[in-house]
Amino acid sequence: MTLTALDDDQIEGRENIQITIVSVSAGLRPISQSLRLEIFDEDVDGDAMADDWERHFGLNPNDPNDAHQDPDGDGVDNLAEFIGRTDPTRDQGPPPRLGGNLGGIVDWTSQSPFIDLFKMSREWLTQCDFWANEPEPDCSAENSWDTGEQALLDLDEHGWVRSMPAPADAPIFTRVTTYWAFYPQFPGGRYVVLYDGAGTMSYGLGAHKIDAESSPGRHLVVFDPGESATLTISATDPEGTGDYIRNIRIIPEALAEELAASGEPVPLFKPAFLEKTRPYQVLRFMDMMRTNNSPLGRWADRPEPLDARYTTDYGVPLEVMTELSNTLQRPPWFTLPHQADDDFVRQFARLAKEQLDPTLQVYLEYSNEVWNGQFEQSGWVRSQGEALWPDAVADGHTKLLNWFGKRTAEICHLWKQVWGNDAYRVTCVMGAQAAWSRVAEQALECPLWDEGPCIDHGIDALAIAPYIDNLGLARYEAEVEAWTQEADGGLTRLFNQLEQGGELSDGPPGGQLAATFSAIDTHIALAAQYGLPLYSYEGGQHLVGVLGLENNQALTDLFIAANRDPRMGTLYDRYLAGWEARGGALFMNFSDIGRPSKWGSWGALEYLEQESSPKYAALMRYLGIANDGDGVPNESSGTDAAGNDILSDTW
């Protein structure tokens, strides 16, 4: 019998070896189901650093003393760099402590990251005119805003309308409209609308075309501050030559004049957005990728930079995310869609490697909160587990967690395979549930998978979302609502309950913060059993009514007021200090910028132009960044804490 082991020669802490056995009597017989061999990377000098890794970075694999040397002078020795998967030849400073989740792109966003307003426009509405002297056929007050005939739209590969439907199609709609529900603090102003092609465009609500300053291909439009707006196409490609209206860009007039003089393309991100985002040391793109309930599974369906808008269910293009990471020099945290096939995973990994600055790390996670039944990915993954292990003596949720662990492991392996000797830059994260440690245990062990445990397949970190929460539950509704009748609206009792407890008859001992710390302690210990660091993939306050209580206006008003109260900043100080003191590593705040509502007060800032807030100031304190209330870190020196220039433009 001959046994052959094939090493992939990649830099990994563990090596996965493919085994085949050749039997003289039986011929070639693969036995992947009955034989599994795992070896660790060769370490000739016994310094706990893989020889492949040492050779890659010019270290001596025969010298045990180089483990504690620091060739780049960053205060982190080679062994720590190996464990942390960082480059020992480049001073990258200490590992990141605090990152941010970035909001999703919608037309009502108060994050407003893009200079080009069209990138944040709503998908096409099919409309008809009911309010004319003679309403159009089949048009009514009920359907005039949106006839629901999007299936009849003739769109090109990037979402531009090539033609209106022929009369033979018997459509109700006669025009298409896009819409912005701008946030109240949107500054408005004079914008230039640039476009290619021929046709008829008009503007409505808070958008007004200045005819005297407009010409074909270039309209001057004034947007009213804080008001909604529409752009309507009622005719396109009138000559039938294929010259339809496309490539619409809506940019501030002052910038348009600068770009016309210089010939440079329209920048992607607003300087104010870059200023507010730069302090975060890692950028998690879960909402920007529309990870929850994502329909994306095939690479051919991915969003692309030339798409008309980035507000679709497919999220923003990968190239947009890498451009932001490269511009700010901040590692991205990607959350791959739950239906992504192997080709999608490989192609995403390939393009990310090509696009991302080679000095940056990358964090990788499979989907988001797969254990959470409110998201479609939970049911989909459960169905995969039940199909793969129909005879296993386990309930559906257990099969879900095992399949989630399996797919996380597979994606980690595929990424590191594509990245080859740069695989050390990839940190694979296993997401878990803060309130129930069994989620992490099952996903890391995945006992139903023949190739388990999943922890042995390149998983580098465990992550939870240790929110300060639970005041919005039904069992607390009567007591919390009673607080709102007090002179301060209930704020004192709320913060007492969060920080020390005793205000609720059956609240957690020591309050909500103590309960959060207990969950952190449990997962710190669990992660340590597997030799993993503990991250938070999300975190912060979680004051929101759930399961119907979001419609209790008294609770919503109290929770929004609490988020604006200075005591929230003090609570965050204790919270973040407790996270770090317990051994928590990277903490990812949720989220960066967003308006408060009955659905939660997630944004550290409520809108892009906001100078600061109790939460944002606390996050800056945790990072050691001065924040004097203007929202710009270290403004007096013109740089942030890392020495990067702060941009001063205000488009």
How is the secondary structure organized here?
Elements: E1 2-6, E2 14-16, E3 18-23, E4 27-29, E5 38-40, H1 51-56, H2 78-84, E6 98-101, E7 125-127, E8 154-155, E9 161-163, E10 175-180, E11 189-196, E12 199-205, E13 207-209, E14 218-223, E15 229-236, E16 246-252, H3 253-262, H4 271-277, E17 283-284, H5 318-328, E18 332-336, H6 342-355, E19 362-366, H7 376-388, H8 396-419, E20 426-431, H9 438-445, E21 461-464, H10 477-483, H11 491-499, H12 512-529, E22 534-536, H13 553-564, H14 566-581, E23 587-589, H15 614-623
Parallel strand pairs: 6-17, 6-23, 17-18, 18-19, 19-20, 20-21, 21-22
Antiparallel strand pairs: 1-3, 2-5, 3-4, 7-10, 8-9, 10-15, 11-14, 11-16, 12-15, 13-14
Helix pairs in contact: 5-6, 6-8, 7-8, 8-9, 14-15
Describe this structure in words.
Residues 56-103 are annotated as: Disordered. There is one protein chain. This protein has 651 residues and is of the alpha/beta class. It has 3 domains: 2-84, no CATH class; 99-107 and 271-470 and 516-637, Alpha-Beta Barrel (TIM Barrel), CATH 3.20.20; 117-262, no CATH class. It is 26% helix and 16% strand. The chain has 15 helices and 23 strands. An 8-stranded parallel beta sheet has the order 22-21-20-19-18-17-6-23, covered by helices on one side. The protein has a 4-stranded antiparallel beta sheet with strand order 7-10-15-12, with no helix packed on it. α8 crosses α9 (438-445). The termini are far apart.
